[in-house]
Amino acid sequence: MEEPLITRQKLQEFGRDYVKILTRELLKAGKIATGRLINSLNYKLKDDGQNIAIILESEDYLKFVDSGRKRGTYPPIRPLLQWVSVKGLPKSAAYAIQKSIYKFGIPPTNVIPKTINAFDTDPQLQQKWEKAVVEQIIKKIEEDNKENTED
């Protein structure tokens, strides 16, 4: 079986960089009430035999932090009760927040697109990942050339 163009080690490094940048974006957005979301961030590699994918792991509510929540639906009360407890607010505040979210929704933070954008706009990341890809391409070419000269 042929070795992938980007090695497992480089994919792991990319996963670590992605989690690091996503953490930074969540902090910039002020999404640190309990720390549970940030502490849940991780990645795993999924190998199907032909390709290796990087899978982001997090608390389920990352999607609502990222995309927001449209008005007209009530969010679950349990996470709100935990949040008001951490903030030192009375339990009744959770119900008021739930009603407010129903009425007005939650604006998106777009932390995931911002994280992806960092790989396109951050000069250090661009240099690092372009260099990594170029190194792997050169390695592949050298291996192919070595095989061809041995035939």
In short:
The protein has 151 residues and is mainly α.
Summing up helix and strand content along with how strands pair, one would put the structural category as mainly alpha
Look at the structure and give the mean pLDDT. 87
Number of strands: 2
- Which shape, going by the Cα principal axes? elongated
Helix content percent band: 55-70%
Per DSSP, the total helix count is 7
Number of domains: 2
Radius of gyration computed on alpha carbons: 21 Å
List segments where confidence is low: pLDDT < 50 over at least 5 consecutive residues: none
Question: What keyword list fits this structure?
Answer:
single chain, about 150 residues, mainly alpha, two-stranded antiparallel sheet, 2 strands, about 65% helix, elongated
Describe what this molecule looks like in 3D.
There is one protein chain. By secondary structure, this protein is mainly alpha-helical. The chain has 2 domains: 106 residues, no CATH class; 38 residues, no CATH class. It has 7 helices and 2 strands. It has a two-stranded antiparallel ribbon. A hairpin with a 4-residue loop joins strand 1 and strand 2. Helix 4 packs across helix 5 and helix 6 packs across helix 7. The protein starts with 7 loop residues before the first helix and ends with a helix. 10% of the residues are buried.
